[in-house]
Design brief:
GO terms for molecular function: asparaginyl-tRNA synthase (glutamine-hydrolyzing) activity; ATP binding; glutaminyl-tRNA synthase (glutamine-hydrolyzing) activity; transferase activity. It is a single chain. The protein has a domain at 5-42. Helices cover 40% and strands 4% of the residues. The protein has helices at 5-15, 23-42, 73-79; strands at 83-84, 87-88. It has a two-stranded antiparallel sheet with strand order 1-2. Strand 1 (83-84) and strand 2 (87-88) form a beta hairpin. The longest helix is centred in the middle third of the chain and has 20 residues, at 23-42. The protein is flat, with a radius of gyration of 25 Å. The two termini are 33 Å apart.
Length: 95
C-alpha cells in the first residue's frame, strides 16, 4: 500500500497535526519506506526461534516480593482534592 499526500492530509486532519507545505509529500514517502521495512521484517522466517525477553543472556537478581511499607491509603487520599470509593477523582481534560 502506497501512501499518498491526500492520505497524509487526512491523517493530519484527524489527529489535529499541522503540516507545512511539503510535509504531506515528505511524510507519505517516509511512511512508504516504513511500510516497506515492516514488510521486509515480516518476511523473515522465525519458525522454531524462541522469543527473547532480553537481548542479553543473563539472569536478573530479583528481590523477594514482600510488603516493605505500611498501607497509608487513607492518609494519601485525605490529602487529595477529591476521592470516591477509594479512587482519586481528576478533572476531565479532553472533550
Amino acid at each position: 500500500m502506497a501512501f499518498t499526500s491526500t492520505d497524509v492530509q487526512t491523517l493530519a486532519r484527524l489527529t489535529q497535526i499541522r503540516l507545512d507545505n511539503d510535509g504531506p509529500d515528505r511524510l507519505a514517502s517516509n511512511l512508504d519506506q516504513l511500510t516497506a521495512l515492516t514488510e521486509c521484517i515480516s518476511g523473515v522466517a522465525t519458525n522454531g526461534i524462541e522469543p527473547l525477553v532480553s537481548p542479553l543472556d543473563m539472569t536478573q537478581r530479583l528481590r523477594a516480593d514482600v510488603v516493605s511499607e505500611p498501607n497509608q491509603r487513607e492518609l494519601y487520599q485525605s490529602l487529595a482534592p477529591a476521592t470516591e470509593n477509594g479512587l482519586y477523582l481528576v478533572p476531565k481534560v479532553l472533550d
